[in-house]
Amino acid sequence: MSSYAGFDIVPRLTKGLVDKHNWEKLLRTIRERYQNDDQVEVKPNYIAFKSDPDLLLPLECHKFLRFGATIPNEDTGGLRDYIDTVSRVASCCFGSRVRDWDEGEGVPGYYALDDVKRSIRSYEQFDEPEVPTTLAQFVLGTDPIRELNLPLYEVKPVPGKGQGLVARFNIAKGQLIISEKPFFTTSNATSAAIIEKQISIELRKLPKDAQRQFLSLHNNFPGKKPFSGIVRTNALPCGPDSPIGGIYPTISRINHSCLPNAHNSWNSASGYENIYAVRFIAAGEEITIPYDHGGPSDERRRHLKSAFGFDCDCKICSRQPAELKQSDERRRQIQHLDAEIGNALRLMYSPGDCLKDCQALLQILGEEFEGSPGAHLARLYYDAFQICIVHGDQARARVFAERSYRARLACEGENNPETKRIQKLMEDPKMHASFGLSMKWKSLKNQVPRGLSSDEFEKWLWRQGK
Ligand SMILES: [Zn+2]
How far apart are CA 164 and CA 280, in angstroms? Predict the structure, then answer.
């Protein structure tokens, strides 16, 4: 009888210096041990034991969960020997974190098989480097500030902007800054008079200090309807393009930037608005989100002035004219490419051009948002996923879904229903309703090529030279 056996490392390894150092020691030992074994090959991103396709050791330790394989009755590939040897070396480096298991002997592995498969898929691509925010995070891979559960921000006056949120500590990209329930939600689908009345009813239900907090928010529309003025100035839509808006004690105080360092998203399952850092935020820096709908600076500034009553003087809007002109050109390109990619007829009849547009957009977003396009990236990769899945290409669809998932995870968190939906599509792309409307690019989800260099992989992914 065959048996699934191997070892897991628990808890999983981090990006900290200590784990990295020990992992390098392990890789070095394995390389030396098997330098004359042509079944063991060092690839750009992992070491492959060719007797089983999943028997791999990634170069980036934080991706590793399991080293294991199904060992057939006649173990001609020497799988058992590889597993035993690597497990012994791992135990020397990581001690009791190494857990041997053997399903044939009734000892199951620690991690779920789906998680293991996902971790192995992630070996193919190197992660972008991250800046550790504290020395402890750098050395140990843990973050004592997060563990203390202190708020990462302070509400305080910001010159020229009234109140704002300012980072109390260094905040890493992808970190949740604040999660908050709204005072109440309102719909802008009714008249101002009705909204005013509804809000006064909602307000009366709130405790006194919450009422005071609400009334202290900025009102850009002073007049006879003060409550709806505050709502119009401060509401954040509950989901993209939702007519329902929420007003928040703290989140409503986050100011705008055309180059924001944070992203706001509504979690419809929990009823909370979440703010994630989309780039590294240094202690003392103001936390900002976008209020604008894109486009060149004159369009953005007009909208911001009429809807919120301020003249934007963010990092982009206050650039010198020549630089601002370049940014405006990129923003126009972004709008144009967005529209082209969203054109359903083009998606159906010129998918190759649509995919090229996605790749061009990726480049421009990177330049315009200084390497951190946040939620734009999640949407872009999802568009690329859709182009592939409509034409039956499950292999590329899976890679794009995975990238979309990772981008969304970093700016909306793992519990967001949209993140979960994309995670499911990443596991089984053909679940998408438009799968295979055409079979022009037909491929199976396990046909993602292995062992390519980064450049070769990108060329395959974007169908360059096809
Ligand atoms: Zn601006």
Answer: 18
**Position of tokens 């590294």?**
280
Q: Answer yes or no: are the C-beta atoms of 104 and 4 closer than 8 Å.
A: yes
Q: Output the CA 181–ligand 1 centroid distance in Å.
A: 28
The tens digit of pLDDT for each residue in 90-111 reads: 998 998 899 999 998 888 888 9
CA distance 199 to 202: 5
Q: Which amino acid is at 354?
A: C
Distance 201 CA to ligand 1 centre (A): 36
CA of 266 to the centre of ligand 1 (A): 23
State in Å: Cα 151 to ligand 1 middle: 27
Contacts of 266 (CB under 8 A, 6+ apart): 236, 237, 238, 239, 242, 246, 272, 273, 274
Token readout for 26 is 């392990």
Contact 291, 305 (CB under 8 A): no
- The structural domains of the chain, with segments of one domain joined by +, span 3-122, 153-292, 321-462
In the reported structure, the alpha carbon of residue 297 is separated from the centroid of ligand 1 by a whole-number distance in angstroms of: 7
Ligand 1 centroid to Cα of residue 257, in Å, is 5
Sequence-separated (6 or more) residues with CB below 8 Å from residue 63? 119, 122, 123
Q: Which residues of 218-253 are buried (b: 16+ CB within 10 A; e: fewer)?
A: bbeeeeebebbbbbbbbbbbbeeeeebbbbbbbbbb
d(CA 332, CA 339): 11
Q: How far is the CA of 294 from the centre of ligand 1 (A)?
A: 10
> CA-CA distances (angstroms) from residue 372 to 120, 194, 281, 360?
25, 41, 12, 16
**Model confidence over 65-93: pLDDT tens digits?**
999 999 998 988 899 999 999 999 999 89
- pTM, two decimals, is 0.76
Name the fold adopted by 153-292: Beta-clip-like (2.170.270)
Structural tokens at position 144: 């004592």
